[in-house]
Design a protein that fits this description.
The protein is mainly β and 303 residues long. The chain is built from no helices and 17 strands. It has strands at residues 8-24, 27-34, 41-51, 54-65, 71-83, 86-94, 135-142, 149-156, 160-171, 174-185, 189-199, 204-214, 222-232, 235-245, 253-265, 270-283, 288-302. The chain is globular, with a radius of gyration of 20 Å.
């Protein structure tokens, strides 16, 4: 008789909500919403030994859809097989270069790229240009770790190709991480991005991120960001500077200067955070020369 095979699974996720106050030329407004930079979500993970040396696993995750969080949107519907050969993933999930601009080790939310932009259209001038291209339907292969390094490649629907190389290393109380990602889509549209971050024993965390995109028949946007933080036990503070060019139109420029703080509550598996960031845009083609300040105060509870 065949032996019954069980898949061990767990349910986890978090709820993250923020109060966003925007001061722009049109006036001041406030919104309570789901955290756009780390939205509320629920996930189911499962794994089991398929045969000796090979494990099969699944990941299903939904995130809050829209500011009101009244609907759910698919984030992951992925299955994978892993062993000494590495890991093969099939389904809806991260492309291989995903996360190539997120090496910051300060733990501060609300500053830099990928944050709330208030209620204006300034978000068109700020982006992360992540080398993974996002999440989609793809086949992905991750190599086994070679010391502190690992690599991955994926092919998605529409002939989208992505690759990434990561480095993660600790030296005593010093932690270092870096990643490079590329994404290529048909029509000569390609993105390259990279980031690196280090946290020193004294608690100082320094990171940088860069991305560039070549678009057929359009503008070629790029950005650079630098972040400096300081970690004191469960509390961390940080400042960031971000500059973009050619995101909305050729010659358009955007800058963002932010300051933020985060405090972890280990007993409650939660954290509270606050940040303020000023966004400024100059775009002669679009006739825009303006800025806005966004203040966000929020909390996240994990389960």
């Amino acid at each position: 008789p065949m032996a019954a095979q069980a898949v061990d699974f767990s349910i986890s996720g978090h709820v993250s909500r923020v109060l966003v106050i925007t001061d722009a030329d049109s006036g001041t407004s406030a919104q309570e919403k789901d955290n756009g930079s780390s939205g509320s979500r629920i996930r189911v993970k499962g794994s089991g030994e398929m045969m000796e040396g090979t494990t099969a696993g699944v990941l299903l995750e939904y995130g809050a859809g829209g500011d009101g969080g009244s609907s759910l949107s698919l984030r992951y519907a992925d299955l994978h097989f892993s062993g000494e050969f590495g890991k093969v993933s099939i389904g809806h999930g991260d492309d291989a270069g995903e996360g190539s601009v997120y090496s910051d080790k300060s733990g501060v939310s609300g500053i830099g790229h990928g944050q709330e932009k208030g209620s204006s259209s300034l978000g068109d001038y700020f982006g992360s240009l992540d080398g993974g291209g996002g999440r989609g339907n793809r086949v992905r292969y991750d190599t086994p770790s070679i010391g502190p390094m690992s690599a991955a490649v994926s092919v998605g629907n529409g002939d989208e190709i992505s690759a990434g190389v990561s480095l993660s290393q600790s030296f005593g109380d010093t932690a270092f991480g870096a990643k490079v990602g590329i994404n290529q889509t048909p029509g000569d549209n390609g993105t390259v991005s990279a980031s690196a971050g280090v946290k020193l024993p004294a608690g100082v965390a320094v990171s940088g991120a860069w991305g560039s995109q070549e678009s057929a028949g359009g503008s070629d946007p790029s950005f650079f960001q630098a972040t400096i933080g300081y970690v004191m036990g469960d509390t961390s503070v940080g400042v960031s500077w971000y500059a973009s060019s050619d995101f909305a139109n050729d010659g358009s420029e955007g800058t963002a200067v932010g300051i933020g703080a985060n405090h972890n509550l280990p007993n409650a598996n939660a954290n509270v955070f606050a940040a303020a960031q000023n966004y400024a845009v100059e775009d002669a083609t679009g006739g825009i020369d303006t800025d806005e300040t966004v203040v966000m105060i929020g909390a996240r509870i994990k389960f």
